[in-house]
Q: What sequence folds into this?
């Protein structure tokens, strides 16, 4: 593992419409990835460029990979693909009822059978790559998405060119823990309706967002409202949460990862403690660890340039793979 770098960037927020080469952007499209499962996705850049798959986290839609961020990566010479995981946004809904008591039992380490697993979500991502004709890709995942891309790299290493895992963890229960005050908020039922969903989202982001890079409340409400309009599923969020709580410890299998790897984590993350990022970087031979002051459990625009530079640096280490 490379020694950790700690940064406090002061780069101004990027503007997707700023001067620079134009980037081809697809409409939102639908891909069948397995029997009965379709994923909504969108692409940025030239399909002839090296592909980069962006995998989002728990109950969070692909649109939270900010368009400006996707454009910045495409301008670095990547064919960028963002998508809704199953049970999120405009992708297919899963099946299987998950109760809050099941989540509590899983949180306490008791055996609970989940409707699907990290391997299922990993297979969905590979199904999207198959649909796009991509034999391999650079993979970038945030939070639960980091767990998914770690699983992709472990289970099908030949299909991953480089690995970037952001504010995530290895699945080992003694690292990457959640602040105990968050579980009641996560389990609290949300009243129906767009406004109630936006207010609930605002409450959560006030708890887990980056204290060094605060987001305007009206912007958070607008993002949540747009997500509500694309489609939300309370039952789907519980299914994803149970997949997280029942995931295996990947630490030992991460020792065999041979692709260039970057681990990014905020030092102020309450959702996934920074020990999760440190453990991930320690498990992967030669991984770069980037720790960010003032960063919580989100992707502040002020940090886009820092993230893009680090992801590009990692992907370029994979030249010839």
A:
């Amino acid at each position: 593992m490379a020694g950790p770098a700690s940064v406090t960037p002061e780069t101004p927020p990027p503007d997707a419409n700023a001067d620079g080469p134009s980037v081809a952007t697809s409409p939102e499209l639908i891909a069948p990835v397995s029997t009965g499962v379709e994923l909504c996705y969108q692409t940025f850049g030239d399909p002839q460029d090296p592909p980069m798959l962006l995998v989002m986290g728990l109950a969070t839609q692909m649109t939270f990979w900010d368009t400006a961020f996707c454009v910045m990566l495409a301008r670095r010479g990547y064919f960028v693909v963002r998508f809704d995981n199953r049970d999120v946004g405009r992708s297919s809904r899963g099946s299987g009822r998950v109760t809050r008591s099941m989540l509590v039992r899983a949180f306490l380490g008791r055996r609970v059978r989940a409707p699907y697993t990290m391997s299922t979500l990993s297979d969905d991502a590979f199904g999207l790559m198959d649909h796009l004709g991509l034999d391999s890709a650079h993979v970038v995942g945030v939070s639960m998405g980091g767990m998914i891309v770690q699983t992709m790299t472990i289970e099908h290493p030949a299909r991953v060119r480089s690995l970037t895992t952001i504010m995530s963890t290895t699945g080992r229960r003694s690292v990457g823990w959640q602040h105990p005050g968050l579980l009641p908020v996560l389990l609290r039922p949300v009243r129906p309706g767009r406004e109630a969903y936006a207010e609930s989202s605002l409450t959560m982001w006030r708890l887990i967002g980056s204290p060094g890079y605060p987001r305007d409340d009206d912007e958070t409400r607008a993002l949540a409202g747009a997500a509500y309009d694309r489609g939300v599923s309370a039952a789907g969020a519980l299914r994803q949460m149970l997949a997280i709580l029942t995931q295996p410890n990947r630490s030992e299998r991460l020792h065999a990862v041979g692709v260039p790897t970057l681990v990014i984590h905020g030092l102020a993350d309450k959702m996934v403690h920074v020990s999760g990022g440190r453990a991930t970087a320690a498990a992967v031979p030669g991984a770069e660890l980037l720790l960010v002051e003032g960063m919580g459990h989100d992707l502040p625009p002020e940090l886009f340039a820092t993230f893009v530079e680090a992801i590009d640096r990692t992907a370029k280490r994979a030249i010839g793979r």
